[in-house]
Structure formats: structure tokens, C-alpha cells
Description:
Strand content: 15-25%
Number of domains: 2
CATH class of the largest domain: Alpha Beta
Low-confidence stretches: none
Number of helices: 8
CATH topology of the largest domain: Nucleotidyltransferase, domain 5
CATH superfamily of the largest domain: Ribonuclease H-like superfamily/Ribonuclease H
Mean pLDDT: 91
Shape: globular
Strand order of the largest sheet: 5-4-1-2-3-6
Helix content: 25-40%
Largest sheet: 6 strands, mixed
Radius of gyration: 19 Å
Order of helices and strands: EHHEEHEHEHHHHE
Distance between the termini: 40 Å
Amino acid sequence: MKHSLPYPLYDLLFIDVETVSEKAAYDELDETTRNLWKEKARYWMKEYPDEEEGARATYQSRAAILAEFGRVLCISVGYLTRGETPAEDVLRLKSWCSADERQVLEPFSALLETPFGHPQSHMLCGHNIREFDVPYLCRRLLMNQMGLPPMLDVAGKRPWEVKHLIDTMELWKFGDIKHYTSLKLLSHCLDIPSPKDDISGADVGRVFYEEQGAERIVDYCEGDVLAVVQVMRRFCQLPLLAEEQVLKAG
């Protein structure tokens, strides 16, 4: 029996978000933020004998994943258009990447004010978006004094009220609440070719702050969107997209 989705594959907006720490290094923070970081990172800092050394090291490795101490650097989205056959489907990709976070959040938020952002007719799809991407975006939007589009206004809602958020990590759990699988591992398990990325998520901050490699970060972010699309096509028992079926916005 073929796996069926609650909504058509062609009504999904696939997303991935890349984040970096608010500052390049802990020492660039103001005194208040440094003290707040020490309070937040107290558990992680235990392995360091020196408090300042621990604060610097943990900020470097963990600040990007916390919306209170990080920021959104890149958002990539993709959507499928149906071909005459599944082998003729086309994936269209679009990305926003900027050192100015508002230049990333504003166009993405505007996109969610179009039909793509109606929870009754469309859905967001990504890997671990329920625990990371969506909460992070909501927090950063509010911290930038920006409103939440209906698609992201999920605070306090029960699981059955957020069915418009399709999380490939959750789908792969099949009810196992403790099971975590990375997108890279899931793609490997489903025999999906890995994108030819020269960086990983852990490299994004370094590539941005030290190398100004925005183009590489966009490629990496779009590669994750493509991987999620391919995972969903496996779930639907559809053929994987070929390279020529993937179109990137200029």
C-alpha cells in the first residue's frame, strides 16, 4: 500500500533555516548579554575549569541555535509544480540571505501572507521544523517587532491544531517519541544522494563571519530543502527529482 499524506505533496512549502550567533564572538557582547549567556550556558560550561573560557567556547558552539542569542541568516523555500507525470515535476527554489536579519525575515513573512501561508490550504514542511525552525522564526520575528503570519502563529496550540506543520523527523519517528534522526542520516537510509556541500551546519557561523561565504551558505540551505523534498517523495513512493527538475531563482 502506498503511503498517503494528509495533504497533497504539491500544497507543501518546503523550508530550511540557517542561523548564526548574534555576534561573531562572546567578547563582542555587551556586559548584560554576557552575563545572561553565562546564566543560560551554566550547564554546558561545567566542563571548563575557567568560567570565561567556558563562556567563550559555549557561545561559539551553541549561541546560533538559541533564538535569544542568535539570528536568522538564511531562509530557503521550495515548492513543487506538478508535471504530466511525477517524473516531470519541477521544484522551484528561492532563498534570502543577508547580514541584516530583517532583509531575510520580511520577504519570507510576506510570502506567508500569500496563498502559501494559509494553514487551511497549504502546509510548511521541513526537517525538525516543529522543534527548531518554526519556534526560532517566531521568536526572531517578535524580537524584530514583526507580526506572526497565521501559518506561524502556533503558540499554545495543541498538536491537532498545527497539522499544517509537516516535520519529516516526526514522520520518521512513527510514534517513537525518543527517536532523533538527522536529515543526513534519513537521506542515507532512504538512498537519497547527498548534495555536494562543502560545509555542514556547524560550519555556517565560521563561513559567514570569517569567510563571508554567503553563496556557500545558500547552496547548503537549498540542499537541505531539496533533501526534504526527496524524503517526502520517498514517503509517497514517487521517483526522486533529477538535477534538471530543480530550478533556482536567479
